[in-house]
Amino acid sequence: MKKIMTVFFVVFMWVTGNAKANITVAHQPQLVDYVVNADLSFSPCHKKTYDLYVGQIDRLEKLVDKKTGVLELSGNGQAANVGPALTALLQTKVKTLASRLGLNGDQVKIFLAKTSTKPAGSYNAGAQTMVQKMVTERVTFDGKTGKEVAREVVDRQTSYIPMLVLNAETLRLLCWHEATPNYAQCEGLLDGVLAHELGHVYHRHRCSSPEVELEADAAALKALKNPNNLIRCIDLLYCSGNLFSALSKNHKVLGIGQDKLHELITVVASSIGQTERSFGKLGLESSHAKFSYQVSHAVDCAARRCKQRHLASDFKKVASLVFDELSFCADQPFSFEQTEMDEYFKSYDQALAYHQQLSHPDPLTRRVYFEQCANR
Q1: Where are the strands (E) in 125-214, listed by range?
Q2: Are the C-beta atoms of residues 268 and 324 closer than 8 Å to each other?
């Protein structure tokens, strides 16, 4: 995942610079620049619950091992004492989802990774299966000399230890978006993330590819009561990661410090994700390159409006500008069919696939696959 995000960031800095002269769009912003958009939510779903979970995330993040970059949340260790509500929430959800896939949730180890400071790998979650092999041998020694004379294997055992890793910013975003007092009992987007990662565990995946990701999606759909929680969580995290790339490039123009970028992304992405249409036509893009370009262009437009209207550093108005431009893209994205840009995007996606750096299916492929699974 880290490889692909890094490549996207470099690629779209170049594509954006070369595409502006080729595309003309009649853009009619929905937002008056001096008015905060009424569709934006600057408060979490349930503030008291959000503060509880995020306070524990903040404390747990300070305990993350500097060498490994993660902290184990499963079990009854230090994490359970520092973040009891969060660890109980994750363990409850993992056990419930794992049982629907025929897995033992008690054996799944859950880890917290620190907040990403770079776009590569941000708003991410991961799964892997650690393989442990144990060999029992019988050794025979010479009674007189004490030297080993024979050795034979009497038993071989292989154990699989599933591990889930969740980024801190991923958990904060999802808690802002949907955490309520009965969060552990209500299925939501967090369940979608966990179900997908457990899908990798179910298939014992050891690598990542578009085909592998679709296999994990299929397993996740079996574990979820509401399949929409899977596609919506993927949309939310995918858009948030792309927003982080685009905002990191424009944060100085917007007057938003690096320390505030995740807060800005949480407000904007969650507000768009709250609507039924979610990410609209952006979720139907047939190319990672096109999706990333649309998000990057939206942020560039917001930065220009911010500069023209001298709105830098006003957090709410900057969020409104970004929300407005991204919403417009979701409703009326660029059409690149039969244009020079369309060839650029196809070339980049093909190059990534050729070098095995394209590890996830594009949004449209994923949606088509979901529909096929639902109709089986």
Answers
A1: 125-141, 148-167
A2: no
